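FORM 7B: Structural annotation worksheet

SECTION A. Query
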Amino acid sequence: MIEQISCKLKESERLGKELEEAQEVYKNLQTARPLEEWHEDCGDVLWWELHVAEPPYCGSPLCSDWPGYHTHWTPIVTPDFGQEGEGNQEGSK
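SECTION B. Predicted structure
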């Protein structure tokens, strides 16, 4: 009985740590960063005006069509499509 409780407690602690890590990732994805924190290694991101009045610009300040007035950016979340050959194959039937 004590062994089962101990095992469940360890599992609960592990899940708690995983939840904290996931919450940190989520927070980082939602945090708007100032232009000064962007570097070309960040690649294309979503660019926002300080007062959101239009959809974000997708790209980088190095793009030829960069508007130049966006002040903050957030990363683009890329979906996990799984390994090659996996995923939604309904369209290929």
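SECTION C. Observations
The chain has one helix and four strands. Residues 2-30 form the longest helix (29 residues).

SECTION D. Sign-off
Analyst initials: ____
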